[in-house]
Structure of NADP-dependent oxidoreductase domain-containing protein:
Amino acid sequence: MDDRKSDTDESDAEQTRGVTSVLRRVLPIGAAFAFGYLFGKRSEGTPVVDEMGMKPSEIEVPDAVEKALERENEQKERGEQDEQESQTERDSKAEQAESNRDESASEVTAFSAPVTHGMPMFGFGTYELEDYDQCVESVKTAIETGYRHIDTAEGYDNESAVGDAIAESDVSRDELFVATKVSPENLDFDHVLTSAEESLERLGLDYVDLLYVHWPTGEYEADDTLEAFAELREEGLIREIGVSNFTVELLQEAVETAEEPIFANQVEMHPMLQQNDLREFCAQDDVDVELVAYSPIARGDVADIPELRAVAEKHDATPTQVSLAWCREKGVTTIPKATGREHIQENWRSLGVELDEEDIEKIDAIDREERLVDPDRAPWN
Ligand SMILES: NC(=O)c1ccc[n+]([C@@H]2O[C@H](COP(=O)([O-])OP(=O)(O)OC[C@H]3O[C@@H](n4cnc5c(N)ncnc54)[C@H](OP(=O)(O)O)[C@@H]3O)[C@@H](O)[C@H]2O)c1
């Protein structure tokens, strides 16, 4: 119906446009011709008739002119009215969108992450946010959304951007939990100290909340490396000591060797790699190490897991949110990485997803061992 109506309007308009356009071109010619005819002053060389290819006798009658001009004026007025209406409509839509945005922003920021021993259990990963401007923008968006735990590494080549985003954000340093990592080639005693100082300089911070051994490879030697970490902690340059990609055996060795407690082990974990042994080991009273899950949404692959899709549907959530909520249920901190506001907020909203026992059992039963980060140098290879 609407289509037909607009088709008809369009053909009327076209006819009118046709007549009007002819008249617009013809009227001045007619006037000039009449003027010249009556007063004998038709200027030489004025190509009035030639240009139009018409003789004066073919010029349209004034009645048609008036009618057409009237119709054109009416249409013009209607158009202006329409234009005004659609402008009002656009304004009101923009207002609505703005208010929706405010609502959804406050709905998003209303959540807060649980905290374990001072560490917010929901953090922001920054691996592959290498473009300076993009990294600053993403980290600022994350902080604005509510993230208070930021994970970086000297190897990510973005500590300066992370530091600048922190400095530019409205949140004070002491409200944030910042973690970085020492690369394998810098894990001998002296290099740990210089590497940590350089990270702090790039981050523009006096201390980091958590400094990890990125991989137990390269220059890593439990006693030498961890002694340097302990010294940094004593000097107040780092608040906590972390390790990453440590197996049960390596973690046991680290816990027994270190003069200061090992606070966290950061490993890959998601419903396709559930890390049952490590979780059990970390939870032991004499170990008491936090588990931090990297790649907690399996870099987007969780979207294809049927069990997660089913649970997501039940909770009107996304599989990504379910994966993050499941890790939380297991007492594990997650640090999903995202670039744009949409993903950043979607992930943050996982804090509002409450799984029940049936959901958790369903996800626990996923029997897959799919590791995404699996370099040859990894201790499990
Ligand atoms: N210690 C280690 O050895 C180690 C290893 C790997 C990672 N990490 C740390 O852990 C963090 C997270 O791990 P990760 O980056 O490997 O993987 P991840 O967080 O599981 O996944 C990140 C990927 O998922 C996409 N994504 C984010 N939110 C999404 C959403 N709601 N829906 C669909 N796709 C979404 C991202 O795309 P967009 O970017 O386009 O949003 C990105 O491609 C890293 O950034 C890093 O800080 C540590």
Summary: Residues 125-127, 151, 214, 244-245, 266, 294-300, 320, 335-340, 343, 346-347, 373 surround NAP (CB under 6 Å).
